[in-house]
Amino acid sequence: MKCNPDPELIKRLIDLDVGIDCASPNELECAVNLGALPERIIYTNPIKTPASLEIARVLGVKTLVFDNVEELLKIKKWTPNAELLLRMEADDPLATINFSSKFGVSPDSAGALLELASKLCMDVAGICFHIGEQEVNKSHCSRPRTNSNGCVCPGTGAKDPSAFSRAVHNALEIAQRSKLDLRILDLGGGFTNSNFAAFAEHLRLAIAYAHHVFPQVQVIAEPGRYLACSSFTICCQVVGRRSDAEPPRLYVNDGVFGNFINAFVEQEKYQPVAMVRQGQLYDQDSTGKRVYSIWGQTCDSTDRIATEACFDRDVRVGDWLVFADMRAYTSVCQTRFNGFDATRTPTLYID
User: Fold this and answer.
1) How far is CA 43 from the centre of its chain?
2) Peptide bond into 247 cis (omega under 30)
3) Same domain, 213 and 258
């Protein structure tokens, strides 16, 4: 739910019997209210308050994640009957966002933590990790690394698809050394349309080996970004234009403090797929000869959506720009910065 908690999307996933990954008490309550079964929910945040542990207990959510001694003792006190997953440190060192900089126990220290859990009579069901938000290099992918807009889609910059298989083997070694009855292996997230094939090729062999070593293990993952990727289209209106700039500037009623935060966080390159003028839709792509920069509505000079976006015609004030594949970490990351309302939501399309 972290990447996109849109109720319609979550309800559709629940109807498809997809489990739900929650990171906060609000997400837990929202998932249950939308119909998710507590046993199909994992509370993946490794750091939880006593109050949030109590909420999880009351809701019937038993599968919790931990990665340190203090958290284990906290869980023992507040939810002693929990089913635990040990968060293991694992990442691609070339990734833009290093997930292990905040969470995860090192493979060398995992044994001692599992030994303490055993002494406390805690049920550790498995091991989880999160490599980081991934995007493969072109050489690893059969398709160009672009999104449906026809523009380069950098994601968060991981280069090495073998990072997943290395993490799987590290998790299996930890379980073997600690004599852990490994029932769950959680591969984390970071999958996108453009990297899935490359990562799956490496993961297939690693998962086969995992089932050879632990025949009973259930392998799961957290593909939130992958599932939300193509579900959302955003339309925003041109509210201003400056023709004397180079390239000319368009100002729209959204921005990096709204649905376009990934222009700032992940250096996403945005290209509208269409422009709408007085009810007439004109398809656009990155081959148009008229180039504009696109800026958000706030007074902050960092509020730039696109340095260069291409059109096949002049764009006027009042026109609407259509952005496809607005996927994860968009509407959920909106702010009320500069007093602009954050209540607008993207349109959801589900085939």
Assistant:
1) 15
2) yes
3) no
Question: 156, 145, 190: which is closest to 264 by C-alpha?
Answer: 156
Q: DSSP per residue over 187-221, as a string?
A: ------TTTHHHHHHHHHHHHHHHHHH-TTPEEE-
Contact between 99 and 68 under an 8 Å Cβ cutoff? The reply is no
Q: What is the pTM of this model?
A: 0.82
Where does residue 265 fall: left (phi above 0), alpha (psi -120 to 50 degrees), or beta otherwise?
Answer: alpha
Q: In terms of domains, do 141 and 85 share one?
A: yes
Residue with the larger pLDDT of the pair 264 and 155: 264
**CA 238 to CA 276: how far, in whole Å?**
10
Residue 112 CB neighbours (<10 A): 12
**Could you report the per-residue pLDDT of 289-328, keeping only the tens digit for each?**
999 999 999 999 999 999 999 999 999 999 999 999 887 8
Residue type, 197: A
CATH number of domain containing 238:
2.40.37.10
Check 236, 299, 310, 333 and give the catalytic one: 299
Look at residues 286, 289, 287 and name the one whose alpha carbon lies nearest to residue 306.
286
Residue 65: per-residue pLDDT: 98
Residue that is written with structure tokens 């109807």 in the block? 15
Pull the structure tokens for residue 158: 């991981």
**Annotation marks residue 153 as catalytic:** no
